[in-house]
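Problem: given the chain below (355 residues), write out its structure.
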Amino acid sequence: MLQLGDVTRINGEEIEPVDVITFGSPCQDLSIAGGRSGLGGERSGLFFAATRIIREMREATDNEYPTFAVWENVPGALSSAKGEDFLAVLQELAAVAGETVPIHRPAGKWTTAGEIMGNDYSIAWRILDAQYWGVPQRRRRIYLVVDFGGHRAAEILFERDRLPRNFGAGRAEGQAVAATAGGGAALAGGALRPDDGLAYTIRERGGCPGGGKGPLVQEERTGTLSCRNDQYLVTRGFARRLTPLECERLQGYPDGWTDIPDYIDGKGRTRQAVDTARYKALGNSIALPCAEYVLQGILDQLGRGATLGSLFDGIGGFPLIWETISGPGTARWASEIEDSPMAVTAHHFEEEPDE
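Solution.
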């Protein structure tokens, strides 16, 4: 898989056309924790870099590629700027599809699931919560599907009923997702399994366990992983920090997925995959079972062997799922804006030599 590097420097006309483009532009400016700067924020504004790349590719291929796009983000995108940011998202994606009729914001709040139908395209969105998709973590995320070639977006998101798969199938030796990933962390070696079968965490509020500097707030099951190193497990009243391995399992990744060798960053410096970087990358990543549900729905429309490109790739979650379900080598390229997650993806997906 080709590593394209900094997403802001990519020209969609010059990269290999693919059937599906996934992008989860940084969400910090859309979340409550991130200060709600909205799409005008420095990081979430990168959404428009992704749509530019998609538009350039479609123009260069006479609107043949990509056929589908998938956007993943925090639920705060629906209410950011009193709903105006999500309206901008829909308007921008409709414009990429060639729509000239404006989209208007509803009188009330945006619904947590919805659909827009154009003449030759469709957009559907839905909030998926990871705790109902095989991992013991409450992680609500918007998944938005754009079908640039028809009216299949709603069918992909709403009209199927099946359980998450075992990601171990379909990968080459040494690249398979942990066999228990579909069942979540409670089944992954038992590391997060208290006596009642549920995983619990508490999040730090102004201090560490036992430090006496602030209260600890307990949450049933597992709270959403953040990019901060403040996730704790409670078992029989004892609190301890979750390990990076456990966080990998909470997201559905193979054991040790972010534990990579030293790598060279964009400035030529040697870096280590320290725990701080691993926590941040995992907190910003996707819960694999939710994303797999969406991608499998798209693949059902395209057929095995269809290709994927991943913008703002994080740690390779979308390519990992896609090669599991569509076949080795079908994830064609990936990009990022930060060195550490790029290094994780590069470690797990060999870059094809120049012809």
